[in-house]
C-alpha cells in the first residue's frame, strides 16, 4: 500500500511538473530556439510570397522578426488558412498568429491579443457597369469574400439580404469578381486596394465604394493566459513605436509609394483595448 501511495505521489508530482513546464510558453520557445508563427502568406502586403525569393515577406513578417530577435530565437513562419488561425494557436501548433487577425470581443474569450498592430476598414469593390454606387445597393446581390474572417459576418450585418459567397483566399474571391461570379468583393481596405492596384488599365472598370462596412483593429494572436509571451510581444511593439521603426515598417509596405498608397499612419502601437 505504501509503495502504491509513493508511486501515486510521484505520478502526481510528474503531472504537476509537466503542467508547470507548459504553463510558460515563452520558456518553451527559448528552449526550442524557435518562434513558430502562423501567417497567411496570401495577404499582400501583410504576409505574401516574394516572387523573386519565394520567401514569405511583408508588414507582419517584419513585426514577428523583431519579436523573435527580442526573444533571441529563430522565426519560423507556417502558412495557415484564415479559418484555422485560432484553432492552430489553441492547439499549440503555432506560438503566435500574425495573419490579418481582427481583435474583437468574441475572440477575446478564445485567445489573447497583442497591442493593436494595424487599424483598417473593410470595403467593397464592384464592377462599374453594375451601376452600384453605395453599400445598400448590394442588397439581393451576390457578394464575394474570404471564408473564416470577419468580412463575411460584417457584410451580412451591413446588407442582410446580400447573397454572400466565400473562398479560401482573397485572391480566389477577387478572381471570382473578375470572372463575373458576383457583383461585389469585400476585404480589408489595405488588401482590397492592393488587389485593385494590380488591375492596371482594367481599374477603370471597377469602383471602390466609399462607405466602410466596419473598422477593424488587427493584432497578433497569443494563446490564452501566456502572460510572459504577451509581455515580450507588447514590449517589442512599444520599442518599435518609440524608436520610429514602426513608422518605417508601415511606410515600407503601405506608404505613399506603394500600391496601397496610404498617405498617413493613423494609429500607434500603444493599446490592446478595443471598443
UniProtKB/TrEMBL annotation:
GO biological process: amino acid transport
GO CC, one annotated term: outer membrane-bounded periplasmic space
Signal peptide boundaries: 1-23
Domain Solute-binding protein family 3/N-terminal: 34-257
Keyword Acetylation: no
Top-level taxon of origin: Bacteria
Keywords of this entry: Signal, Transport
Pfam family, one: SBP_bac_3
Family as reported in the entry's similarity comment: Belongs to the bacterial solute-binding protein 3 family.
Protein name: Transporter substrate-binding domain-containing protein
Amino acid at each position: 500500500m505504501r509503495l502504491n501511495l509513493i508511486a501515486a505521489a510521484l505520478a502526481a508530482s510528474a503531472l504537476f511538473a509537466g503542467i508547470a513546464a507548459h504553463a510558460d510558453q515563452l520558456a518553451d520557445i527559448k528552449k526550442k530556439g524557435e518562434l513558430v508563427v502562423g501567417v497567411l502568406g496570401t495577404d499582400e502586403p501583410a504576409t505574401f510570397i516574394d516572387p523573386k525569393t519565394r520567401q514569405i515577406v511583408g508588414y507582419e513578417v517584419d513585426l514577428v522578426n523583431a519579436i523573435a530577435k527580442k526573444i533571441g530565437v529563430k522565426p519560423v513562419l507556417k502558412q495557415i488558412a484564415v479559418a484555422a488561425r485560432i484553432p492552430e494557436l489553441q492547439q499549440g501548433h503555432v506560438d503566435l498568429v500574425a495573419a490579418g487577425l481582427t481583435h474583437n470581443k468574441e475572440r477575446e474569450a478564445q485567445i489573447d491579443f497583442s497591442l493593436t498592430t494595424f487599424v483598417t476598414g473593410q470595403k467593397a469593390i464592384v464592377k462599374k457597369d453594375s451601376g452600384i454606387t453605395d453599400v445598400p445597393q448590394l442588397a439581393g446581390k451576390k457578394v464575394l469574400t474570404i471564408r473564416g474572417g470577419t468580412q463575411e459576418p460584417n457584410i451580412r450585418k451591413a446588407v442582410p439580404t446580400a447573397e454572400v459567397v466565400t473562398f479560401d483566399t482573397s485572391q480566389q474571391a477577387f478572381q471570382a469578381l473578375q470572372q463575373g461570379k458576383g457583383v461585389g468583393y469585400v476585404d480589408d481596405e489595405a488588401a482590397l486596394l492592393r488587389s485593385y492596384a494590380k488591375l492596371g488599365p482594367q481599374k477603370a472598370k471597377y469602383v471602390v465604394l466609399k462607405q466602410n462596412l466596419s473598422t477593424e483593429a488587427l493584432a497578433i494572436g497569443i494563446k490564452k493566459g501566456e502572460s510572459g509571451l504577451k509581455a515580450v510581444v507588447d514590449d517589442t511593439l512599444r520599442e518599435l513605436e518609440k524608436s520610429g521603426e514602426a513608422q518605417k515598417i508601415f511606410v515600407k509596405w503601405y506608404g505613399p509609394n506603394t500600391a496601397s498608397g496610404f498617405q498617413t499612419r493613423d494609429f500607434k502601437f500603444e493599446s490592446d483595448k478595443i471598443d
